[in-house]
Amino acid sequence: MLVTFQAFLDPFVIWWHNFLIAADNSIMELIADFFFFFFFLRLSKTSTVNQLFLLEEAEGGFDQFTRSYRTFGVQRQPDNSLFFQEWAPAAEALFLTGDFNGWDKFAHPYTKKDYGKWELTLPPKHDRSPAVDHNSKLKVVVHTKEGERFYRISPWAKYVTREEKSVIYDWVHWDPPQPYIHVHPRPKKPKSLRIYESHVGIASPEGKIASYTNFTTNVLPRIKDLGYNCIQLMAIMEHAYYASFGYQITSFFAASSRYGTPDELKQLIDVAHSMGIMVLLDVVHSHASKNTEDGLNQFDGSDSCFFHAPPRGEHSLWGSRLFNYSSWEVLRFLLSNLRWWMEEYRFDGFRFDGVTSMLYHHHGIGSGFSGDYSEYFGLQVDEESLVYLMLANHILHTLYPDCITIAEDVSGMPALCRGVAEGGLGFDYRLAMAIPDKWIQILKEFKDEDWNIGNIIHTLTNRRYGENCIAYAESHDQALVGDKTLAFWLMDKEMYTNMSSLIPMTPIIDRGIQLHKMIRLLTHGLGGEGYLNFMGNEFGHPEWLDFPREGNNQSYHYARRQFNLVDMDHLRYCQLYAFDRDMNRTEDKYGWLAAPPAYVSAKHEEDKVIVFDRANVLFIFNFHPTKSFQDYRVAVEAAGKYRIKLDSDEAQYGGHGRLEHNTEFFTEPQPFHGPCALLIGLWS
């Protein structure tokens, strides 16, 4: 790996040199800001290179370092002996207890090693089988220097479960005699990324926690039919509190047992691969649950270990612990965690949660970002976590060239999605988080006739050049109780009574269905280089999402997705579903997500008309609530003959069928906001 390090440094020099050549007097005042920007990236990149050199020197390279899940926790050896290893630097003594020794707290002590590590080897039984049986329970007994005794779950535990009436999770030894073997290869990275964001537990109309098997059998075929080529799985890493939406992780190497076994998750991913669908893990390395008995917190009895000591090691809003990314063993733990999910479960990449919190010492709390470079490059930036993210992306993309990484960052950090070799953080995509906020703001605050078309276009196109964005019309947070989905903002209580196609549409339902389709297509076509949809929103899922909790008497009524509504032909949900499906299929044919940014030729405030070209596809939207147009002149980039390929007004999509699809539209050789133009009818 050493030979690649020189290539790490050269592009920066070329990039900066080219910038100086291109600079003229009109932008010289920005030189100071840009110099600081590049200087900061250079420092961060140098730190990353130094870390890689240290890994090479101390661990034999990052390949071996990131496979530490093979040496920590519990490992079955070729002779069926079991090797246990933990990192607990503040502990006075460690013991192993469990079903295998009748829960004797002192019978099996660990041996203390250098650098805070502890080891234990259990020889096989007389019949040569492992001393700890598959599916039996274990605990690490931690004795502190203060004389306290704690019972802990190994941070490297691969499987944890909870008894029905218990609130604490148990470490369960997972070593099946016939583990699941993946059959299907990973799909190739698609040029156009269309993501179906999913939560396994709510992926059923039934009022219960759904299973991995249910998702494999009943949801994967729907995702395939809809034309999505990637799934983003939420709430997979084990989390003791179900209502946390999977963002308060307690066991980082364990797939959540509330949905089934590890092998059933592996089968889900394998079947998705057989359909040509990539699977991303929503990974949470920005913080961890404060739980002690079944989490990482105070594993060795100290208030630090994997985390910074308080107050730096505590997130004031999330009530969680913050990792110490400068710690060698924390790097081992987190980087090996990424490798584990890629190797053991064969995920295809990650959506990194909470990147804004990681990047800044203030964690984004009370900070507005205007875009000024001083907000991104200064002492408020946490360089340790920034270097961790650069390391993670470099290692992932080196080992898995088709790996996809997505950053959830609201700050707009420059170079987030540029290569590490350029001084960037190395992500493939960033979430365009301003877009769903804009749509909700519009629906909450403005009448249809008051929509600011220019502001909508600005929000959809305002992204850093050369950094890929994932566009989405609404986020999973907006589905939670206390807020509303787009469909619910548009149609509200009428969704309960007037969604039947057997009765005429009311004005509210008519408006809601048409805008639901148009908002999604406009976001899909103009908002980014990838597209994301949260499960159920494609068909206008009614109501909200609310996990069982004390405040709702532990009810599962709203913790579900009512896919059964789509299967009822007399309800209009199937019309929204059909439009979403055909929108994705049309993109798959023409590839606008993989094309350069669109050329917007019209954003007419009075007419409420938007026109743009992308990937040789002409998009035309009329958002006027009452005004239709005949022979409306629109600009086009390429001369020739045009035909309608997707029409939101088509009857099968809940429209009024007012356009004739056999009509051919010919361009006129006269300039009109472009090299040529054509005439078309637009309906309100």
TrEMBL record:
UniProt key word Transferase: yes
One GO-annotated biological process of the protein: glycogen biosynthetic process
Alphabetical keyword list: Glycosyltransferase, Transferase
Keyword Transferase: yes
InterPro entries xref list: A-amylase/branching_C, Branching_enzy, GH, GH13_cat_dom, Glyco_hydro_13_N, Glyco_hydro_b, Ig-like_fold, Ig_E-set
Active-site residues annotated for this sequence: D353 (nucleophile), E408 (proton donor)
Taxonomic superkingdom: Eukaryota
Family stated for the protein in its record: Belongs to the glycosyl hydrolase 13 family. GlgB subfamily.
The protein's name: 1,4-alpha-glucan branching enzyme
